[in-house]
């Protein structure tokens, strides 16, 4: 088990980001989920799953965003926003549902602790993972991005997002799943 008290945060493992039929579907989602499952098994009860929800105020720039992506302008109850079946059992905690790209904020910090260590995984590397990581770094968290447990919109965008996050040491570090497990004292 996780001896260092770190939390695993799985960003938005939802149908809208997993389905090849979705305009936002990542072609790398299944590969990332394989590694997310390995990490979740090792982190046990210290796993939190988030969901992006389409509930933002349309009178803000989110209105323009949804005009640009009308397929996503659906009620929050639409199956697009459900967790993929493989993610439903990742965490014993309720999902953290937010209408923002970044999931870092008072709700997440209340669970994982101020200044704690968080391993980030999920989709998409170049949007919600990146937004969460940068806000977490600003808040003083210690973040590890499990690079092979994240899925980008494209291979190029995934690499670009990892490059940007890699510019933020020591607050943000990059490691693959095997290295995360080894640093937590867990055999891969």
From TrEMBL:
InterPro entries: Isochorismatase-like_dom, Isochorismatase-like_hydrls, Isochorismatase-like_sf
The organism's place on the tree of life at top rank: Bacteria
Record Gene3D superfamilies: Isochorismatase-like
Keyword annotations from UniProtKB, A to Z: Hydrolase
Pfam family membership, one: Isochorismatase
Domain Isochorismatase-like: 7-166
UniProt entry tagged with the keyword Protein biosynthesis: no
Protein name listed in UniProt: Nicotinamidase
């Amino acid at each position: 088990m996780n001896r260092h008290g770190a939390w695993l945060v799985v960003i938005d493992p939802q149908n809208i980001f997993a389905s090849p039929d979705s305009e936002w579907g990542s072609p790398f989602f299944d590969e990332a989920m394989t590694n997310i499952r390995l990490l979740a098994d090792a982190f046990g009860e210290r796993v939190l799953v988030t969901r992006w929800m389409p509930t933002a105020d349309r009178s803000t720039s989110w209105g323009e965003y949804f005009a640009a992506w009308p397929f996503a302008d659906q009620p929050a109850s639409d199956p697009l926003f459900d967790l993929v079946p493989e993610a439903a059992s990742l965490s014993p905690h309720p999902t953290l549902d937010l209408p923002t790209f970044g999931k870092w904020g008072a709700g997440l910090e209340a669970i994982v602790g101020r200044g704690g260590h968080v391993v980030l995984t999920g989709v998409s590397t170049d949007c919600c993972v990146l937004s969460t990581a940068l806000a977490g770094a600003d808040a003083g968290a210690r973040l590890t991005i499990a690079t092979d447990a994240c899925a980008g919109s494209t291979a190029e965008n995934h690499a670009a997002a990892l490059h940007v996050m890699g510019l933020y040491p020591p607050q943000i570090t990059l490691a693959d799943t095997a290295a995360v497990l080894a640093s937590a004292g867990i055999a891969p």
